[in-house]
Design brief:
- InterPro entries: Aminotrans_3 (IPR005814), PyrdxlP-dep_Trfase (IPR015424), PyrdxlP-dep_Trfase_major (IPR015421), PyrdxlP-dep_Trfase_small (IPR015422).
- The protein is an alpha/beta fold.
- The chain is about 40% helix and about 15% strand.
- The chain contains 13 helices and 15 strands.
- Strands 4-10-9-8-7-5-6 form a seven-stranded mixed β-sheet, sandwiched between helices. A four-stranded mixed β-sheet has the order 1-2-3-13. Strands 11-12-15-14 form a four-stranded antiparallel β-sheet.
- Helix 4 crosses helix 10 and helix 11 runs parallel beside helix 13 (about 415-435).
- The model is unreliable at about 1-10 (pLDDT under 50).
- It binds pyridoxal-5'-phosphate.
- Pyridoxal-5'-phosphate (PLP) binds next to helix 5.
- Pyridoxal-5'-phosphate binds near residues 136 and 212.
Length: about 450
């Protein structure tokens, strides 16, 4: 049956679809940490969709939960209760660490951040937002409006007035040589300076604990706790965008904010991506007094849809029962070590960094877009991505304006043998860049 499918799919490159890659492969099915394309080739999936396949492809518990719920009722809208939504909300509220937490489900990370920004601006009666340089928070007008990296935005217009802070990127610029403590002090001074100029009339700080699209860059542990002390003095809220960092992906912590736990939990937390294992679930967790700013008739038509909620519950059960956070810590730690060893002495590689199964390889070379003449780091990243794909490995890229960071974020059930397999393919792919550079 597959042969017929492959023949049908191969010829068509759909001009009528807005696509990310010019020559994307067509995925037909997956299992565990592997996916297959329409020509029958198997790939080890080191990007998990886009961090969306959190546990594993075709996880039987999730498939069965979706089928069972689909057989009962597909959708009712949040006008009514459905049991999976009630249960998932309770689980997420408890896990969030936010006291007296309330959950509002959306269908994406963008919509979750939009909702959090709406809540924060309504609660604080201010449209000024603090955000981080090099950040990414989604595609809508307001999410783009707080995104630091303009490469992701077709427009700089936004209903929000956003002030950007230092703190996430240290591999370049004046901060590169500072220790963690010096860097943290410099970033806090930057925040104080900014607030000195605009006063305390700011609704919230929105930040990713580890920047995702920005190239898997993490601030020193405790930076947001240090920020929080300043924010608290002004009553400014902290929104932790956990769209990429939630559910144990960073290994040491269930949420990214916990690396900054001295300041306690954030006021609002947004999530999406992995919780549905590919089904569209996003959401906001907020303290009750903040969530009460949603007007009584606030509704997301498809947010909390029972089929997605059933998938989320089954997926979360599997994640917790199999301690996939612990697996991310162990296997991720091994993979980082293996990649560091594999790239030692490779001048094409500037840095291998990461936490758990969120690993970035930043490539060296001049800044600038790929394909613009003289070879840039972004050209090297594009070449490695292609070579890895040829070798049977899917990875992502991102980072900075032009994308010079390879991003590795497999399903959290990755085995040691699969980590070894992927590292070997990646080493060979990186070596092709070394050869062309010397
Ligand atoms: N926030 C972060 C940190 C993200 O990485 C993304 C997507 O990559 C978003 C928000 C937007 O999520 P979505 O694509 O589900 O709208």
């Amino acid at each position: 049956m597959h042969a017929a499918l492959h023949a049908r799919h191969r010829a068509v490159l759909p001009d009528w679809l807005a696509l990310y890659y010019r020559q994307p492969i067509e995925i037909t099915h997956g299992e565990g940490r592997y996916v297959w394309d329409a020509e029958g080739r198997r790939y080890l999936d080191f990007f998990g969709g886009i961090l969306t396949t959190m546990t594993a492809h075709a996880l039987p518990e999730v498939t069965e939960a979706v089928a069972a719920q689909a057989g009962r009722i597909l959708h009712t809208s949040t006008l009514y209760l459905d049991r999976p939504m009630v249960e998932l909300a309770e689980r997420v509220a408890r896990l969030s660490g936010i006291p007296d937490a309330r959950v509002f489900f959306t269908t994406s990370g963008t919509e979750a951040n939009d909702t959090a920004l709406l809540l924060a601006t309504a609660y604080r009666r201010s449209h000024q937002i603090l955000a981080m340089r090099n950040s990414y928070h989604g595609r809508s007008f307001s999410a783009v409006g707080v995104t630091g990296n303009r490469a992701w935005s077709p427009t700089s217009l936004s209903p929000l007035h956003t002030l950007y802070l230092h703190g996430a990127v240290r591999t370049r610029g004046p901060f590169a040589a500072l220790s963690d403590a010096e860097f943290t002090a410099a970033c806090v001074a930057d925040l104080e300076d900014l607030l000195g100029q605009v006063g305390g009339d700011v609704a919230a700080l929105i930040a990713e604990p580890v920047q995702g699209v920005g190239g898997f860059t993490a601030p020193p542990d405790g930076l947001y706790a240090a920020f929080r002390e300043v924010l608290n003095r002004h009553g400014i809220l902290w929104i932790s965008d956990e769209v990429q960092t939630g559910w144990g992906r960073t290994g040491d912590h269930f949420w990214g904010w916990q690396a900054h736990a001295a300041a306690g939990p954030p006021d609002l937390l947004t999530f999406a991506k992995g919780i549905g294992n590919g089904m569209s679930i996003g959401g906001v967790v907020a303290r009750a007094d903040i969530m009460n700013c949603l007007t009584a008739n606030s509704i997301s038509t498809f947010g909390g849809s029972p089929v997605t909620m059933a998938a989320g519950l089954a997926n979360l059960d599997h994640l917790l029962a199999h301690d996939l956070q612990g697996n991310a810590r162990r296997v991720g730690g091994l993979l980082i070590e293996r990649l560091r060893a594999a790239t030692a002495g490779n001048e094409a590689v500037r840095e291998v960094r990461g936490r758990g199964l969120m690993i970035g390889i930043e490539l060296a070379g001049p800044d600038g877009p790929s394909g613009s003449g003289a070879p840039t780091a972004a050209d090297a990243a594009a070449a490695v991505l292609e070579a890895a794909r040829e070798g049977g490995l899917l990875i992502g890229k991102g980072g900075g304006h032009h994308g010079a960071v390879l991003r590795i974020a497999p399903p959290l059930s990755l085995t040691v043998a699969e980590a070894e397999e992927g590292a070997a393919i990646l080493q060979a792919a990186l070596d092709t860049v070394r050869v062309t550079r010397t």
